Amino acid sequence: MGLVTGKEILEAANGGGYAVGAFNINNLEILQGVVRGGTEMNAPLIIAASEGAIEYAGFDYIVAMVRTAAGLTSIPMALHLDHGRDPKVITRCIQGGFTSVMIDASHLPLEDNIKETKQVVKLAHAEGVSVEAELGRLRGIEDMISVDEREATLTKPEDAERFVAETGVDSLAPAIGTSHGAFKFKGEAKLDLERLKEIKKRVGIPLVLHGASTVPQEILKLVTQYGGEMQDAKGVPPDQLKKAIALGINKINTDTDLRLALTAAVRRVLTDDRKVFDPRKILGPARDMIAEVVKEKATLFGSAHKAQEVRS
Ligand code: TD4
Ligand code: CA
Ligand code: ZN
Questions:
Q1: pLDDT at residue 150 in the model
Q2: Which of 82, 170, 192, 255 is catalytic?
Q3: Which protein residue's CA is at the shortest distance from atom 10 of ligand 1?
Q4: Rounded to an integer, what distance in angstroms lies between the CA atom of residue 177 and that of residue 197?
Q5: Does the annotation count 273 as an active-site position?
Q6: Distance 148 CA to ligand 3 centre (A)
Q7: pLDDT tens digits, residue range 127-170?
Q8: How many domains does the chain have?
Q9: 287 occurs within a structural domain
Q10: Which of 102, 193, 204, 115 is nearest to 161 (CA)?
Q11: What does the pLDDT average to over 94-105?
């Protein structure tokens, strides 16, 4: 169907009370697995590429692969820059075929974050590209020693309200206790859902949850069974994600769970068949496992069978 904007996908999700998966890709097989999973579930997709992914695969390869994928599937897809930091990269994405960009200036003081985000919004909107911004710091709640520290790290609802009003962003990623990677929580795995509720009430626009991988037990088991060392890995419990979606999360970023699936599948095939050296036999099963993960996410997020609702 061709690429659509992030805004089109997320406005539909906001109206329908569900979330769309944003899946990070770094190569052809990951992209194909994600698109197959989304297509089989008739679920809209956001394909995310980080600055690291662009550096690894090459800008033109990323755009060409994702455009090709969008042309071959009937589901709506957006191509999104994840955690844009470098103004040169952000500008290139806006002008070079991405339909959505994230400006991540969350490490800066509020005023500066607003200023940088506003500039990106101006440039992006002039080209019909959607913008996501981040406010607050991603860190596990359990890592915070004091209430003061928690306040300084998680997004304040009044800041979110001001930020959205002044910047004109299309979607916002607040910090509510998640963190990137496979080791998210040392103690109890929980999100600050009260805070999320208050933020949504004040801003109304689509909200994004970063660091949202669930680290599925069965995949983790495969990784360790086949020699990986990730014993203390812990993700966001699926029921916490469901609650977050009910309270206004419309985009769920998932990278770690795809990395785990790829790692599990590759470890298994290399262990089970010590004579294998055909890359298609090594990466094919990884692509299959990624498609399965994406299918399960579409059910969990409520985005399955929602493809028709975008742009209609
Ligand atoms: O934004 N993301 C994905 C982060 C991708 C980082 O890629 P680089 O290594 O190239 O910088 C998320 O929020 C993913 O969260 P998750 O829970 O899957 O780690
Ligand atoms: Ca950040
Ligand atoms: Zn992120």
A1: 79
A2: 82
A3: 52
A4: 14
A5: no
A6: 24
A7: 999 999 999 998 766 677 687 877 889 999 999 999 999 999 99
A8: 1
A9: yes
A10: 204
A11: 98
